[in-house]
Specification:
Number of helices: 11
Shape: elongated
Low-confidence stretches: none
Mean pLDDT: 96
CATH superfamily of the largest domain: Vaccinia Virus protein VP39
CATH architecture of the largest domain: 3-Layer(aba) Sandwich
Strand order of the largest sheet: 4-3-2-5-6-9-7
Helix content: 25-40%
CATH topology of the largest domain: Rossmann fold
Bound molecules: S-adenosylmethionine
Length: 258
């Protein structure tokens, strides 16, 4: 019997109703290409595989990798590795059949969720959809709108790249062992209108980091280094980072790069 390892953020889903809902949200079909990050003991893996021709698993825990290799299920490919280092772009590009939708899914280890979300941005141009379970507080920040106190660097950067929706709330009782926090499922679809070059994306990272560096300070202070290039309005000079829309941050990134 596998004992849950804290260092790998192992909380295994055990509520069949929740499992069914998440699989329905992923909406697997035979021609789809899916990679599941962190299959654990297979709460999502087995029902997903019964609706897919093929499913790739990415798991860091050697014991679980051995478990899945031993199961030797048809259509399953097991990859031992760290999702933070895995090349999702290459994975998506190398799929044999380019017609089916390409999805990255998983009940993610919460201790690495933010760096993992940023890591996945590099593959967004080849991915059709991501469906992830995360700590509810993180999902709330991801989908927060400008003006809300949850609106943060994570909100701007991810909303610049994805359309996102909180689709399901999940209580701690749905897991074994129970996590200390509430969880939520988020659906992320790369934006079709995304048009930033790598240099512009880099500028967006810089200007957003500067704007949010001191949350309570006005942008007059936080964006001082960019003042000569960005002609901030009087209202913007007095505003705080959380009051500026994602669209305006994108405009600034383009101006800074030009
Ligand atoms: N999917 C299973 C479920 O819903 O019951 C397990 C989810 S558990 C929250 C997180 C899973 O991610 C575990 O299987 C854990 O070993 C794996 N994991 C943790 N860190 C990882 C990493 N850096 N790369 C890949 N998998 C990782």
């Amino acid at each position: 019997m596998h004992r849950a390892r804290k260092r790998f953020g192992q909380n295994f889903l055990q509520d069949n109703g929740i499992i069914y809902s998440i699989v329905a949200l992923i909406n697997p079909s035979s021609d789809m290409h899916v990679i599941e990050i962190g299959p654990g003991l297979g709460a999502l893996t087995r029902p997903l595989l019964s609706n897919l021709d093929q499913l790739d698993l990415l798991e860091i825990d050697r014991d679980l990798v051995a478990y899945w290799n031993q199961e030797n299920l048809k259509g399953l490919k097991v990859i031992e590795g760290d999702a933070l280092k895995f090349d999702f772009l290459e994975w998506a590009r190398n799929r044999a059949d380019k017609r089916g939708l390409c999805k990255v899914v998983g009940n993610l280890p919460y201790n690495i969720s933010s760096p993992l979300l940023f890591h996945l941005v590099s593959a967004a141009k080849e991915i059709d959809e991501q469906v992830f379970m995360l700590q509810a507080e993180v999902v709330e920040r991801m989908v927060a709108k400008a003006g809300s106190s949850d609106f943060s660097r994570l909100s701007v950067m991810l909303q610049a790249r994805y359309d996102m929706e909180l689709v399901l709330e999940v209580p701690p009782e749905a897991f074994d062992p129970m996590p200390k926090v509430n969880s939520a499922v988020v659906r992320m679809i790369p934006r079709r209108d995304f048009d930033l070059s790598d240099a512009q994306w880099h500028s967006l990272e810089k200007v957003v980091a500067a704007a949010f560096s001191q949350r309570r300070k006005m942008l007059r202070t936080n964006l001082q280094a960019f003042a000569d290039r960005l002609s901030l309005t009087e209202v913007e000079l007095k505003a705080r980072a959380q009051d500026i829309s994602v669209a305006r941050y994108i405009e600034w990134a383009k101006i800074i790069t030009a």
